[in-house]
Amino acid sequence: MKIFESSYDFDYSWDEVSTANWRKYCPWNDKSTHVLAVDTLSRRLDPKTGIVRNPYQSRAASNSAPKWVQPFLGNSEYSHVYETSYVNPRAKKVTMCSTNMTWSDLLNVRETVVYRPVPSSPNMAEKTRFEQHAQITALCGGWQKVRNGIEQFTLERFGQNANKGREGFEAVLQMSRKVFGEERERQRRQEEQAKL
Fold it and tell me: What is the pTM of this model?
């Protein structure tokens, strides 16, 4: 088993991050073009806790695997991931849990991502901490050398994709701030015009 962990502070408020998270694979994100579709399976609000539960499945073009591992993977043009996000506005916390559906008989990748505000002094700008944890386990019986190779390759690829994903989400956050700012300004001008 291999573990991947990452942490990063976005220079955006939790409100901005949690809202932009719904658009993380939009055209503004030019780093995650391999994600072809995201299908929302349901969305449910728990009236007691206020938590929004949102399971969805994403489909991506398969990353090219090394030649030595391809016989184990077969010919799959796409990879599928099942993810559920939990948005808790009261606690200001977004938790996303995902697992691979493609090649799940050979490889298990379980990822948890958490977004929460960074505790800061009143003078500092609001920031949101991103924490990522993934557990990568190859399930190919007693072939330790093959299992280690698959896990190591997956760990390295996961790290590369995590960096791209963070850069892409940063672009989504930047564009969201700009677009929402322009919209707020447009509404403000409209309200001023209505007063005249």
Answer: 0.85
